[in-house]
Amino acid sequence: MSIFETIKKRRTIVPALFNNESVKRSDIEQLLEAANWAPTHRRTEPWRFKVVQGQVKDDLGLFLAKKYKVIAKKFSRVKQAKIMEKMNQSSAVILICMQRDPNESLPEWEEIAATAMSVQNLWLMATELGLGGYWSSPKMINYMHEFLFLEKGERCLGLFYLGHFEGERPERVPGDIADKVEWL
After folding, report:
1. Which domains are present in the chain?
2. How far is 97 from 105, CA to CA, in rounded Å?
3. 35, 44, 54, 98: least surrounded by Cβ within 10 Å?
4. Which pTM value belongs to this model?
5. Pairing state of beta strands 154-164 and 92-99?
6. In whole angstroms, how far apart are CA 110 and each of 24, 101, 151, 173?
7. What pLDDT, on a 0 to 100 scale, did the predictor assign at position 170?
């Protein structure tokens, strides 16, 4: 598959569509290696990933569900149950973190952008391997330091749910690029 075909094929595949097949560690390592090739200004390579599976994944789901109950302005048992359900449906969850340059030699947004580009690489590799992925950034990620150790200047930007799925990727037709470009 060409890179352009892979880009066009990439989709959000929600955990509800995952099957029970485990994602191999070697495949996860390949995703992370692809992520590591993202562009980065000043070579800060700010992306950090924490792979959770098994009992730690279950513990993370419980932590997020409990934290949701504490911080929700309008608590919903259904939403709380879905937090746990997404964890249970996923073979692995990759915590997407960013390590801020301690010298602050570049604007923070550039390091956030570099981290997002690393996730795009990861996601494209997942597509290439036939895996499904879903990036979620719930408010509870702001409390991730209560669940696991984060280095000074490191913060969690989201959760990447990962799993095998059956069936076809949903079709997407983007809006016309001509509506989004101005030639000067």
Report:
1. 11-165 (3.40.109.10)
2. 19
3. 54
4. 0.95
5. antiparallel
6. 32, 11, 19, 29
7. 86
